[in-house]
Design brief:
It is built from six helices and 40 strands. The protein is mostly beta strands. The protein has three domains: about 90 residues, Immunoglobulin-like; about 140 residues, Lipocalin; about 250 residues, Hemopexin. Strands 2, 3, 4, 5, 6, 7, 8, 9 and 10 form a nine-stranded antiparallel beta sheet that branches. A four-stranded mixed beta sheet has the order 1-40-37-38, with helices on one face. Strands 15-14-11-34 form a four-stranded antiparallel beta sheet. A hairpin with a 4-residue loop joins strand 26 and strand 27.
């Protein structure tokens, strides 16, 4: 868009600056920042070696920024910035951890990690400067996950802290639940969520069920069709399946095993998805419960029911991960191989799926189970094939504050907004328009990113701050931008 035209139309100096992708292959390049979030398994220990009081262990959550300092063939070095952790619960002491540190990963023979932290811990009574370093250098999880423990080096015999950190490069988790809920934090009457809505762990509805279905030609008023699978493609196109068969006035019969798009098209019919696997479809479609579409076009998915494949000579379980190339990527037992369910050799299903560039798989199961180490694992808990719980179901929904008293709302669909994805070509601005009546400025773009966020600054050099949430859309309206501002500069981020 020509800058002179913008100035002459709206009297607002607006510029779209160097569109850059926020994601990079496996590691951030020097000078670039990834956002990290603490996961289940992060905790703070408050110990007293001399007094013998009970050790205090509190779950810890929060975030930090990871800045890439330098990379060489042997080691990569990063700076942890803006550490903001809170440990504790509503009924216990809350510890606040702030500060920064240096993280190094690499090695000649085996991968090792070093982490040093400097900051303060406020327990509500004292605020002490604290220094930490890790003792165990071996990697707990494959990069880009960070899992390590650090011990306070300047502690006293009456109090010393230890931190266990499990973190992923993540901005938001998008998901769908099986059960609907009423949010205490969303304004009425739009405080109903779940059952087919695409939700964010930040506590907002990314796309409501009617918006997802709006262009599929269903009879007006058709709502609350659960999603059984979801993924987001280039340009923000949302791919999903339904939990029931429906007739479309524009597309004909859509079955629960078909892959459809929020842009009003059938991406692939169920027989097309499964044809290379040689499944026996004489009794009908086999459903579609989880899905990931790779950059090369290969689709990984799970079935809604067990089905025999004469071609592969085996029964494919509803918890197995299958490929459109006609192979079983991982069986359900392989996905759960690092867990210890009380009932072994059982197919617990596969309901939601996300695969990291490193190959680590996040997923949910259709059935919960008792684990010998983790105790109760519900069907709505988010798991990793590394043998751990990423998020408990109720923690995923915590920002919504559901009024319903359920132990588990289910987890049917999954997408992770992360900086740790391969870089995409920069997006291009297709239109900038100004509404003289409202003073709103609308920005439209095209790009290969999957999700986007528009930022604004008063000066061309910044600082740039988000003016809206992360969205899968190709347009954003800045309300009152012309009326309320003399000038503004815009920058588009994509993931």
């Amino acid at each position: 868009m020509n800058l002179r035209r913008i100035i002459s139309i709206g009297c607002l100096c607006a510029a779209i600056l160097g569109m850059r992708a926020m994601a990079f292959a496996q590691s951030p390049a020097n000078g670039q920042v990834w956002k990290y979030v603490l996961l289940e398994g992060s905790y703070l220990i408050d110990d007293c070696p001399a007094c013998g009081r009970p050790t205090i262990l509190q779950p810890m959550r929060g975030s930090f920024d990871l800045l890439a300092l330098d990379n060489n063939p042997l080691f990569s070095r990063y700076e942890l910035r803006n550490i903001s952790f809170i440990a504790g619960s509503k009924t216990t002491i809350a510890y606040r951890v702030t500060g920064g540190g240096i993280y190094r990963i690499g090695g000649e023979v085996a991968l090792l990690q070093d982490l040093t932290l400097q900051g303060s811990i406020d327990n509500g009574f004292t605020n002490k400067s604290s220094f930490f370093t890790n003792q165990l250098e071996s990697l707990g999880r494959p990069w880009p996950m960070i899992e390590t423990s650090v011990d306070q080096t300047n502690g006293a015999i009456t109090q010393v802290y230890h931190l266990n950190l499990v973190a992923a490069p993540m901005r938001e988790i998008w998901f769908s639940t099986i059960s609907g809920f009423t949010s205490a934090n969303l304004p009425k009457p739009n405080n109903r969520g779940g059952r087919g809505d695409l939700l964010s762990s930040s506590g907002r509805i990314v796309k409501s069920n009617p918006l997802l279905l709006g262009r599929l030609g269903f009879i007006p008023g058709t709502v609350d069709l659960n999603m059984d699978a979801v993924d987001i493609g280039p340009g923000g196109e949302i791919f999903f399946s339904l939990d029931t068969d429906m007739f479309s006035e524009t597309l004909g019969q859509i079955r629960n095993g078909d892959l459809v798009s929020n842009r009003g098209r059938v991406v692939q019919r169920n027989p097309e998805l499964t044809q290379e696997s040689g499944l026996d479809l004489t009794t009908g479609d086999v459903g579609l419960d989880a899905i990931v579409i790779k950059d090369d076009g290969e689709i990984l998915f799970s079935l809604a029911k067990d089905t025999f494949s004469p071609k592969l000579g085996t029964t494919i379980g509803h918890g197995d991960l299958l490929s459109t190339h006609g192979r079983i990527v991982k069986t359900n037992q392989q996905l759960l191989s690092r867990f210890h369910p009380a009932i072994a050799n059982h197919d617990y299903g596969l309901d939601a799926l996300y695969i990291w560039p490193s190959g680590e798989i996040w997923f949910s199961t259709e059935e919960g189970f008792q684990d010998q180490s983790l105790n109760t694992v519900t069907a709505g808990d988010l798991l990793t094939d590394q043998g751990a719980i990423v998020y408990r179901n109720l923690e995923l929904l915590a920002a919504f504050a559901p009024l319903e008293d359920l132990a588990d709302f289910g987890l049917d669909a999954l997408f992770v907004v992360t900086d740790a994805t391969p870089p995409a070509l920069a997006p291009t601005i297709s239109a900038i328009t100004i509404d003289r009546g409202t003073g709103n400025l609308s920005v439209q773009w095209n790009g290969p990113g999957r999700v986007f966020q528009l930022e604004r600054a008063d000066e061309v050099v910044g600082p740039y701050l988000p003016i809206g949430p992360i969205v899968p859309d190709l347009t954003f309206i800045d309300p009152g931008a012309v009326t309320n501002r003399v000038r503004g500069f815009y920058r588009l981020q994509q993931w």
